[in-house]
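Q: Structure for this?
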Amino acid sequence: GENVEQHPSTLSVQEGDSAVIKCTYSDSASNYFPWYKQELGKRPQLIIDIRSNVGEKKDQRIAVTLNKTAKHFSLHITETQPEDSAVYFCAASLNAGGTSYGKLTFGQGTILTVHP
Amino acid sequence: NAGVTQTPKFRVLKTGQSMTLLCAQDMNHEYMYWYRQDPGMGLRLIHYSVGEGTTAKGEVPDGYNVSRLKKQNFLLGLESAAPSQTSVYFCASSRVGLADYEQYFGPGTRLTVT
């Protein structure tokens, strides 16, 4: 099955700095890579995702890059704000849209703290 | 729309007791999932369902059973709870389609087994 490794486990930045979280996956057939944000005591919520036919995707201050050859993808947050403080999870889906039925394999999570 | 809801929000069980967690969604989604979340381990898939009357095992199915008698509901059962099942349980749902794979999560159930 798929295995997703996420680093770092904790990340502390000053407000206004950039933050980068990296994930690697094991199965080259994975083709969908979402990122979820989970605030303390809340449910995970999708913030951005990328398909395997795209190398980069941006949405305002957040971006995701994908390197299929190296089997890794990264979340980039620019101009960080205190409200970005949360746990971020990457995930991968094997053959999304086909026989995987949307199943996700999650990374271990990164606790991001943005200091004012 | 309420989205995905879960009941109960909190529960404390003694070892060996049984309970059922209920997940309900009002988005007419075909796919539903149960995850458990433990510190430092992310979310792990317990069981999932691709439609009414169907269920399948995920990554960590042992000690759990599920049923999907109605499209909008997905039940997770613990027949004989163990301390190792202390966790936060999340239900999620998603629609079928090539254009949208997003999973929508419920608010979670915090379960403690003593």
